[in-house]
Amino acid sequence: KGSLVWHNIRSAAFSEGMQFREFVMTLPRELGCDILQWSYVMDEKIYCDLDEGSFCNNGYSDGSNIDIDEVASAKFIAKAGMQLFATRDIKKGEELLCNFSSFSDGDWRLFGL
Question: Which of 20, 28, 33, 61 is deepest in the core (most CB within 10 A)?
Answer without folding.
Answer: 20
